[in-house]
Design a protein that fits this description.
Spore Coat Polysaccharide Biosynthesis Protein SpsA, Chain A, 11 strands, disordered C terminus, 3 domains, three-stranded mixed beta sheet
Length: 483
């Protein structure tokens, strides 16, 4: 009865308040109050939705680089992914620097000492949250069962526990004492790089078509190296973002020193505007035998991939300079011929006069595709034929060749004297060797490295690749040496 009287009393009070408001308050005041109440309700509703919504744990730019986990066993990788999802709210908040995100006191206490500056938060924070257990705590059944009971003890040293991360080779107790898990430095470097945002698909600093300088000196190249922060050996990567592709540029040369400086002075700024992680490798042929461009490209491929793995390889002539930086040297899933139009044929498209099989000047391939076609032929001594042979190797593997439009894929060819003698047997060699590409290429490559120089603007390898007389399978006499 008391409850009924209380509710009845409350109802009378409410009806009286409503009557006074509706009959004795001005219309403008009523509308203003109604608007304020509506806005307040909408704000409360948005806050409730924000608290209930769970942000994408990977974020728009993929906060965690899964390539770091490729070497780990599948069960370890699955546990790490589960922990990533469990910490998704905090990872995403640190990445977007969302100051309105509400954490509990426990979250703030756990993250104390784990603060990182700017956008360098999520990856490192994720590694601290995820990889703070060793292999035994992940794999051993007893440890897996009692992991929840040890959670509070791990929180105390979570920020500083870098000593044990994840083991890759063995999970036995004896191996855990000797091998201690993966090197911390590897993860610290990888996570610090991956903290940065990924470079945009279309770089922002492109200039379009420009007039190519036909001459440059070594001093100009050195001055450019100092201003562009190019690493020793001709390597460069953007510092403000993670490059989408790592590219190895292989350039075969002999007696083209002046063109080398012109090439480097043009190519370094060209690739930097495209925000690539690249290295320039120049392979120089020693001796006075016939120049073998294809064999030098094979040498550059084998030697260049010894230092690191690249996403793709560009085989580039030293006298071909791209005019338009919108012609991106980004890696493509299929082989790509780069020189579609050049100044030596008055910028006529190679596709317009039945040269669709032309594959010379510069081309891009993935390392697995180079291995799939067994690289370039080693038997083209002299000038010409090796690029058509490579096109046939690619065609025999049913790999389509991609090209940019001729209006963008334009090149300036540096002037140089024509060869004193042209290998007229090139196309005979081409016809004979194409069916036997599985026997001639990377698997039959022989050479001697005479020297390796890590110069400020490029890496140079001096090699001895022999001559035609060293190839017993060539049934025709060698051409006379070039005069």
């Amino acid at each position: 009865m008391a409850n009924y009287n209380k509710s009845q009393h409350f109802g009378k009070k409410f009806r009286r308040l409503f009557y006074l408001f509706y009959n004795k308050t001005a219309l403008g005041a009523r509308l203003a109050l109604l608007l304020v109440m509506t806005l307040g309700f909408m704000i409360m509703l948005s806050l409730v939705r924000e608290q209930k919504s769970e942000p994408d744990w990977r974020g728009e730019d993929h906060l965690f680089d899964y390539s770091l986990l490729d070497d780990l066993p599948s069960d370890i990788r699955q546990i790490i992914q589960q922990k990533l999802q469990a910490n998704s709210r905090k990872l995403y908040a640190s990445y977007t620097n969302n100051r309105n995100e509400k954490y509990t006191k426990e979250d703030k206490r756990r993250s104390k000492g784990d603060q990182f500056e700017g956008k360098n938060k999520p990856q490192a924070l994720g590694m601290l949250r995820i990889l703070e257990t060793d292999a035994s705590s992940v794999t051993h059944p007893a440890n897996r069962k009692n992991r929840a009971n040890r959670g509070n003890r791990r929180k105390k040293h979570e920020a500083s526990n870098f000593s044990n991360i994840i083991e890759t080779n063995s999970f036995t107790a004896a191996a855990q004492k000797q091998e201690k898990l993966i090197s911390v430095n590897k993860y610290v470097k990888a996570t610090s790089d991956s903290c940065l945002p990924t470079c945009p698909v279309t770089p922002r600093n492109l200039r379009g078509r420009e007039v190519v300088r036909l001459s440059a000196s070594e001093s100009e190249v050195l001055e450019m190296v100092m201003s562009k922060n190019i690493s020793a050996g001709g390597s460069w990567a953007p510092r403000h973002c993670i490059a989408r592709y790592s590219v190895l540029i292989i350039v075969p040369v002999r007696d083209r020193e002046h063109q080398v400086w012109t090439f480097l002075a043009h190519l370094h700024p060209f690739l930097q505007r495209q925000e690539l992680d690249y290295s320039v490798l120049i392979v120089e042929q020693a001796g006075s035998e016939f120049f073998n461009r294809a064999k030098l490209l094979n040498v550059g491929f084998m030697e260049g991939l010894k230092s690191r793995n690249f996403d793709c390889v560009i085989f580039h002539d030293v006298d071909m300079l791209p005019e338009d930086d919108r012609h991106l040297y980004h890696c493509s899933p299929q082989p790509r011929h780069l020189v579609v139009a050049s100044s030596n044929n008055k910028y006529k498209s190679n596709l317009s006069f039945q040269r669709d099989r032309y594959y010379g000047g510069a081309c891009m391939m993935l390392p697995r595709h180079v291995k799939q076609v067994n690289g370039w032929s080693n038997r083209f001594w002299g000038w010409g034929g090796e690029d058509d042979n490579m096109w046939r190797r690619v065609a025999l593997r049913d790999l389509p060749v991609w090209r940019y439009p001729a209006g963008v894929a334009r090149y300036t060819m540096l002037p140089h004297p024509p060869p004193a003698a042209v290998n007229k047997r090139s196309y005979d060699t081409l016809a004979r060797l194409t069916p036997h590409h599985h026997e001639d290429g990377l698997n039959s490559l022989h050479y001697s490295v005479l020297g390796v120089s890590q110069l400020p603007h490029h890496t140079r390898i001096l090699v001895d690749i022999g001559g035609p007389k060293d190839d017993p399978d060539l049934d025709h006499p060698p051409l006379p040496p070039l005069s």
